[in-house]
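Researcher: Batch entry, complex prediction.
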Amino acid sequence: MTALDTLIKSLTRLPGIGPKSASRMAYHLIKTDKSYNLALAEAIATIGEKIFPCSICGSFTETDPCPICSDTGRDRSLICVVEEPQDVLTIQASGAYTGLYHVLGGAISPLDGVGPEHLSFAKLLKRIDEGSFGELIIATNPTEEGDTTALYIRHLLKDHSEISITRLASGLPIGGDLEYADRITLARSLRGRVRF
Amino acid sequence: MTALDTLIKSLTRLPGIGPKSASRMAYHLIKTDKSYNLALAEAIATIGEKIFPCSICGSFTETDPCPICSDTGRDRSLICVVEEPQDVLTIQASGAYTGLYHVLGGAISPLDGVGPEHLSFAKLLKRIDEGSFGELIIATNPTEEGDTTALYIRHLLKDHSEISITRLASGLPIGGDLEYADRITLARSLRGRVRF
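Model: Structure tokens for the complex:
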């Protein structure tokens, strides 16, 4: 196998990259200046060492605990439960949330062999027992697996009446067009209609 | 800037990779096994040293001359002129060509500031003078720039009556549908119609 084949084969293992994209990337890498290739190679080789899950919330971090868990300025009565570490960054980027997070590591999906025992529910219960949370926001994906996981969390906390459990609103995306909304989203946004 | 930001920023410089794809790739790289990351990093870091243009034809190679130029089994009376090194691999993959190649390094494009002096025409003429080619196949892209380049090659070889100059056929793509063919492709395939 030539050096080019080796590179293309490695690149196709990345998510969303097929043989054609990998070839384009490889040809680009042959022509770019060497310093860029070395910087990219260095970043890829070391990312696994530099970034790891926070021991408290499970989101990606370079320090333990992560900057969010150690930030004394954040609202410690709020905890937002998400599926994946990248969801934390997505919600942070919205700028609309100032509380803490908890990363489950996925969603309950019996078909994929993911049961509650594979997700960090035990750690979540421990945090709730030790903390003083007033509200838990469920921010799992609006999918069947995310819905199942949300129901499971509600069941898990049925004896914690001190915590109000909420879930991200589902509805029409801002800037979207009613005409292009799918049936299920439209039905949900009707059911969840709010006083204007 | 965090290690994650650095990696994402480097990845977005690859062709066809926007911020969303780069994030997905970065998250994937955090989670994959370290050996894959190291192999990919190594392939990226060294590709520029391992692969270089063939001193004869200009296509990408790991040895000089390239395997095609040094292959005595190929038809040395045929030379196929292409724009970019990757075009050689595309034509090779078709399995329909057994001659030699010549890579111009682009196409004539006055708007982009690319004149004939920026492409390897001098080298092409020298190869033609020293070789014994009977046919030169122009395989530049079926674009305005490719057409201009093709006309320039014909002009360049006007004193070489010993060489017949041909060009790749334009027309309907195989497996395509007449209904979806664009006007220009359809017009070309009509003009270039062949006896059946």
